[in-house]
Structures are given as C-alpha cells and as structure tokens.
Amino acid sequence: xxxxxxxxxxxxxxxxxxxxxxxxxxxxxxxxxxxxxxxxxxxxxxxxxxxxxxxxxxxxxxxxxxxxxxxxxxxxxxxxxxxxxxxxxxxxxxxxxxxxxxxxxxxxxxxxxxxxxxxxxxxxxxxxxxxxxxxxxxxxxxxxxxxxxxxxxxxxxxxxxxxxxxxxxxxxxxxxxxxxxxxxxxxxxxxxxxxxxxxxxxxxxxxxxxxxxxxxxxxxxxxxxxxxxxxxxxxxxxxxxxxxxxxxxxxxxxxxxxxxxxxxxxxxxxxxxxxxxxxxxxxxxxxxxxxxxxxxxxxxxxxxxxxxxxxxxxxxxxxxxxxxxxxxxxxxxxxxxxxxxxxxxxxxxxxxxxxxxxxxxxxxxxxxxxxxxxxxxxxxxxxxxxxxxxxxxxxxxxxxxxxxxxxxxxxxxxxxxxxxxxxxxxxxxxxxxxxxxxxxxxxxxxxxxxxxxxxxxxxxxxxxxxxxxxxxxxxxxxxxxxxxxxxxxxxxxxxxxxxxxxxxxxxxxxxxxxxxxxxxxxxxxxxxxxxxxxxxxxxxxxxxxxxxxxxxxxxxxxxxxxxxxxxxxxxxxxxxxxxxxxxxxxxxxxxxxxxxxxxxxxxxxxxxxxxxxxxxxxxxxxxxxxxxxxxxxxxxxxxxxxxxxxxxxxxxxxxxxxxxxxxxxxxxxxxxxxxxxxxxxxxxxxxxxxxxxxxxxxxxxxxxxxxxxxxxxxxxxxxxxxxxxxxxxxxxxxxxxxxxxxxxxxxxxxxxxxxxxxxx
Amino acid sequence: xxxxxxxxxxxxxxxxxxxxxxxxxxxxxxxxxxxxxxxxxxxxxxxxxxxxxxxxxxxxxxxxxxxxxxxxxxxxxxxxxxxxxx
Amino acid sequence: xxxxxxxxxxxxxxxxxxxxxxxxxxxxxxxxxxxxxxxxxxxxxxxxxxxxxxxxxxxxxxxxxxxxxxxxxxxxxxxxxxxxxxxxxxxxxxxxxxxxxxxxxxxxxxxxxxxxxxxxxxxxxxxxxxxxxxxxxxxxxxxxxxxxxxxxxxxxxxxxxxxxxxxxxxxxxxxxxxxxxxxxxxxxxxxxxxxxxxxxxxxxxxxxxxxxxxxxxxxxxxx
Lengths: 760, 86, 223
Known about the structure:
By secondary structure, chain A is an alpha+beta fold. Chain A has 27 helices and 29 strands. In chain A, a hairpin with a 2-residue loop joins β1 and β2.
C-alpha cells in the first residue's frame, strides 16, 4: 500500500473530499458492483461517491436488496387483479407485506422470506434471525404477529452436513420463535440431495390488525422526526463491507467483522409490545423495520417512499461497539431495530412509551423539504444522494434465458420403465417403505421443538394440512395457512411445478373449510447468471401468475433467493408457495384425522396413472424423470368451493389432502391421527390408486346421515367423488389386498427421524 | 479500568446436560482423554479505576444474590482480573 | 373476584392466563413488573414466557422486579399464587417454592400434550380436582427439569406437597416425575405444564386446565 493511501486512514471521506479527489481508487469491485453500475452511480451523483455512499449503493443494488435479475419477471405479479375474493387489498406488493381485508374490520398481513445462506454458515443464528426478520416485516405494517411457519429443506438425511446444519436450524427457529411467543403452526421438512450445501430456510409470519391500525413505510411531513429504536447497533453482518475499512481507512490490513448476525428474541418480544403500544397511541406517522442493509435500507426506503428529503446525524446512533466506522454503521445488520417517523408534537408521548418498555430510542434526524437524503458524521456530510436512486431505481437486468438442454432427456425418462409391485405383499411393503421415507415420515422430532400453543388461539397445527389461528376472540374469525412446494415436480417442469405448489397449498387451506384469499411466495433458485436457471425462474413466475389469475387470488408479496447452488449444480427450482385463507368461525373447521368409527370415507377427485416425480419413484427406485401430474385449476377451485360449503354445512367430519406419497399415505395418516382404522375398497387399479400423486384429491369422512349433502355439494361444483370405505377397527384394511395394523404404520412412520438424527 | 471475575459452576451432584453433551461429542473429534466435562459461567464486572476490597465485597454479594442459584450452583471464585488477563 | 397476572418483559402466556381467568368467571387484572403494587387482587398468576430473556437463569432476574417485593410477603402471608412454567421458575428463584428448574436432559425445547396425575387437592389451586385424577395439559419448555436435594424431595413427598406428577413418560427428566409442587401452606403452587392453554373447546388438547382457576375462585371467596 502506498503512502498516499495510508494517509487516508485519518481522513473522513466526506462529500467535499469526494469532490476534490475525483480519481481516488474505490473498491467497487470488491463490494460486488459491476463497472457500469459504478459508472452509473458517478453519473447520478455527478461526482465519485464517498465511501459511505459507495457502501450504500453496493448493498442496496445487490441482488438481495434490488431484485435486479428478477424484477422484470416479478412485475407480472403486479398485472394480476389486486383483489382477493373478499375485496380490495389494503396494501399490496411493494410494501413490507401485503395486507388483506378479512372482514369485520379485521385485516391480516403475511409474508414468506428466505434466510438460506446465513443459515448454512451459522445454522442456529441464521435461522433465528430469519424468523426475527420476517416478524419485523409484519410488525412494520402495524400488525401484531400471531403465528409463524417454517418450510425447511436439507440435503440427504444421512449426510454428515445435514447432521451439522439441521439440529442448529431447527433449534434456531424454535429458540427465537418460542421466546417471541409466536405459535409455530406448520411448515415443511424436505430432504433431497440437491439441497446438499444449499439448505433452504424459509420463514413465514402472519399478523393481524384492525383496519385503522395499518401503517406504511414512508417519511412525509417536513420537520417530522426520524427515530431509531430497539437494540444498539453493532458489527453484525458487515463482513462484506470490511473491504472499505481495510482499503480506505486501515493501513494495517483488514479488520475482522462478522458476516453473520446474532439475534436477541427477548429484545424483539419487547419491541413487538412496544410497537403495538406506539401504534395504539397514534404516535407513529411511518414505520420501517431494519433488516438487510440496515440503516442504508431503512433511511433510503423511507425517504424514497415519502417526500424525498431526509437528514440524518449518523453519529447519534447508539453503538454496541464504539470502534464502528460510519460506513459500517450504515451497513450493520444488527437485529431488533425499527425506525419510526414521528411528528414533533408526539415525540414526548412516543418516548414515554419506549421508556416504559426499556427500549432505547434516539432521534437521528428529520424529514426535510429537499429531495436528498443527507447523512452527516460529526457535522460533516458523508452522504448526499437522491434516495430513490438508492432504494428503488437500482439496476434492472434482462438476464439471458434458455431452456436447459437436459430437460428433453429428463422428461423422456418416465416411470413407465420402472417395475411396479408384482404382488399384494409387495404393494404393502412399498406402502410402508414410502410411509417411513424421510419426506413422508413423522416430523415431530422437529415440530415438537416449537411452541404451537402460545397465545391460545391455535385451532390446528402440524401435522395437519394447514395451520389455523383465531384472529378475533369474540367472533372466532380466523385464518388458515399452508406452504407447499414439490421441487421434484418443478425440476421436471418449472411452469407446472409452480402451479402444483400453488394448487397443493390452496387445497390444503381448502380442506379446513377456509376460503383461500391470497398468495405469498418464496422463490428459491440457483444462479441467475445461468440462463437455464433464469428460464426455470421465468417459467415458474409465469406458471404462478397464470394460476393465480385462474384461481382469482393475488400474489401479495414474497421474496426471491438466487445463488442456491454449488459449483454448476443448482438446487431444484423451489418456488415455495404460501396460501392464506379465511374462516369466519374457526371452531367450524375440518381437521385431517379420522375421529369417529363407522363413518363413510369418500375420495373426492380422481386418480390418473401419474407416477412421474412421485415419492414412490424416489423412494422405491431413486428415480426422477418424466412429466409431473396434470394441473387442473378449475377442478381445484370447484373442489375448494365444495369443501367450504360442506364443512360450513356440517357435512364433513375430517378432510385430508392427497399429495406426497399418494392416497395410501393419506389413508395411513388419517388412521394414525386418532388410532381409528378403516376398511377401504379401492375404486381402480390398486397400485395407481395407492401411489399416484394426481392432484385435486381429498379424503373426507362424513358424519352419520350427511352423505347426501356432501354428494350434492360435489355435484354442484362438478367434483368427482367415490365412497371408498368406512372408518373403524385398529388396522388399515385394503380390501382383497392387504392390511396393516395402525401400530405398525405408526412404528414405521415415527422411527425415521429419531434414528437418523439421534441414532435411536 | 479494573475487572472482577466471578466463576459459577453447577454443583457436582447436579446433572449438567451441557457438559454431558460436550463430553459425548469430544471423542468424535478424536479427543478422548477426558473422563468428564462440566460447563460453568464466568461473569466479568468492570469498575472505574483499580478494584478495591469494597468492589470485591459487592461482587460477592452479587454472586450470591443473583448471579448464582444456591440450589444448583456454587460460586467457585470472586477475584480481580489481572492485567495479563489471568 | 380479582386475579392478577404479572407481565414481565418477555412474559408470553400472560394474555392466555388472563383469558383463562375470565373463562372461569373471574376478573383478570394485569399487573406490571415495574409497579410495586398488587392493586388489591385476591390471587396472582405468574405466567409463562421468557422473562428478561431468561438469560442469566430462568426466572432469576424477574425475581428482583419491584412487583415481587410486594408479591413475596403477600404469598408468605397466604395470598394464593400460581406459577406456570417460567412463573414456577420465578417462584423457585424467589424461594417461595423449593427446588430449581434446569435444562431438559436432551437440551431441546419440547412441546407435547402431557398427562399429569393430580396428587394433592388440598391447595388453593387444585381443590376442584378429584385426587388421583389424570388430566391432559400442554407441556412446553426447554428448562423444566425439577431438581432438589434428596432431603427436600423426601420432605415434599412426606408432607404431601407434590401436587402433580408426570404420567406415561417423564418429558424432561424431572426428579421423581415431579411436575408441580406447593409450599407448606398450600397457597403457592408452581408447575411446568400450562393449564391456561386447556380452557377452551377447540384450542388446546383438553379443558382440563379450567379447574385451576375455578379452584382459586372458590378459595379466594372463602378467605
């Protein structure tokens, strides 16, 4: 390093300095910016950026914050009607989370997000802060968070790295969510080799609010104060910008800054209660959570969405580590912080509430009548930028796309060539084999580490098809939620795969009797720089958009996670779809297990010979090829309507979706729930009936004398139905084929995870 | 700035699952010469200037009153942290 | 009949405890940790959660909250007090109840529907149960393993102060399957499982928790 550069260690890189040293070398490349991006920053500012500005642009223009590769595709969601079956959205895509009217003056907001990469590096904290981040997104809408869900995906169950990351991730989700007092009501647990080295940790939060409590993230009203409150700022998650500290300020070499954040769920719990008090007192004009890119993001987004002008005195930020540089403070991803816009007349009331909760609150600056975000450090200007250029007008790429060459061969290799069970004995053995396989087996090793009861509003949680929570204690108004994705199907056909994920989540919500209203998506893919991955991504977005249009439900928000790949090998396209539905009275919902003996068992929908991509093909033959099951959205919609009507009319005593593993697994799960078996007469060919994963199917039981009402509902909505048996006994009996005692089903179903994860 | 160090250990008769978990994991790393592991807690209390007898007395009170639970834990030492970090 | 529920920073099941009191027919009164005043309540529930994050030891910091300065002497004077989960931990840290709660043997948080046997009905919080009854109550904790020295355990057993025992499997490694205990007078009860989650049809595994709250309403009426 030259002497010239070494002398910079003592000089703060202010706007004045930047103006007088236009040719100073800047580490834009190390910060992940492309040459033309750096050039554009210089054009916007009409000078070189200061190092603080460079840090802000680099992080806000990153894939993670700017959606620069996905934006052109995601716009298609915006073309969907912004209405749910219950009316206009109160806030749509583009806000922290979409807000949906569910009636009686109540609204809910929900969103699903990924925290994949941090969770691979530091499983416990990565997963914990993933939960913390999505919960703050929901809080920032003015809502009380009421439940969480967590779809998780790992590599092979017997791989040593799975043994390293899985327990930590589960403990992190549980440790944070449990301490926060949020019931965990569902999710997924999937093992597949493609996630080896790229585990997927997605987290969903749902919150409820009265219509009048809706808050939006914008800073308007000249003179209004900008208040930072919550935890102190430390060096969390700023590993990426240490390059600035090393090259610009410290001639002695790079400083060590952690790349991961550490969460404090206690601080977040206090912050939730504090925020709700602030909302109810009416002392908040605008609110924004601090997540990725910390203060850089919060200040630029608030200003950009508001009047544009804001001044911030960065040296006022309370620090946990006094050695932090200005750039690092701007980048820090320290958790459990929020930023509020507060009218001067309400500042005292605001501070009184934060004091009650022992939450530190600091006025950093105010809304100004200019159009620039100006940040000073001990009186000197280090940032002076148009906030829109940072937050909203980042680069947009039309990445090249190409249908992957392997797809032809993959789709041609169908399951038609695989041996099917030759005897009833083999049929029975393969059912047990699938039932005990990692993706179908009992997941309570994981879900028992989560509190599903806290707040006392949980009407249904894992392992049910959908989680249900009550929103209003008076009326019983509540919501049902499910998340789903079959990455194997999406690998075979990403367009159909996204639709199948949506269809399954939609159906899972419908089995409870709820009316599906809206979608949030977490699109997990490989590298956008790979044209094959970009094609998968675009296909999935198309599939999802077309399906939402057909079903009449909007996408209200979500997130994209790219770069989930090792070397050239990307994960399966994994568009995880969350569907939210509403129940006017949660106490009148259907659950998924058989609860009474002597009740008729019906199968709604029909099986086709569709085994490609199925669990049977994976478990019995380690095969993936062919084309996924056909999607029929009109049929799904009719099925949902029929279920809703039948549940509301008391014509259904239990309902369970048929998906992973097929009907055989659905029957076994229904029997194990309450130890009540059944005698089943399969309507068609036994193997196809038991193992096909054809969509649009639900197993229901009917209370005595209600069969005709169910059948009438099915006829009305054009849903095929067949009476396939009757509940009772302590075995699952497949007439003329085989039977399995429930105790044996359970032993097979429950043994897998404890054996793999605890060795017992 | 001076520092007082307080060490708290689980009582020997109380099962220490954290220590047990570590003891169980070490042999997997090839570290197999330890018969047992117990995990305790260290508190470091900072004072302005040098540590005085009065500081130590207060630290002992804190250790007994709040930092340990006599049902399951022992305060094993309350002492001044030396300049060399020992 | 007024029953107070204390909210510490990090309390989670305070809302649920207040609902359970209302369902049982009582008036639920919110008590704030920083307020050294019991506001004339006839009984107090110390609810579940992670008070102050449970960072030092579970319940160790909450025990020094201003409201505890009032609660401890009141409990010693006979005020009915129920500690649920974190509340049980707070009462043990306060020495209102013997023993301590330590991490579960496998160190994982564990949530299940747990069967308990009611061993004593002569406390303020269990009089509405039948002795020996088996009830199903939500159990959820990471540090619910009840420990005490042999002498204390023998004394608790001898004086009939073990109020609940785990049945059908000990979910956390508690000594002698103890799920809940009482003080000598029988007015202070602590247990790890959560009766407040078992008071409403459709929410929780049973309605078996309701009798805690009806018991204390009867007891308080008799004072």
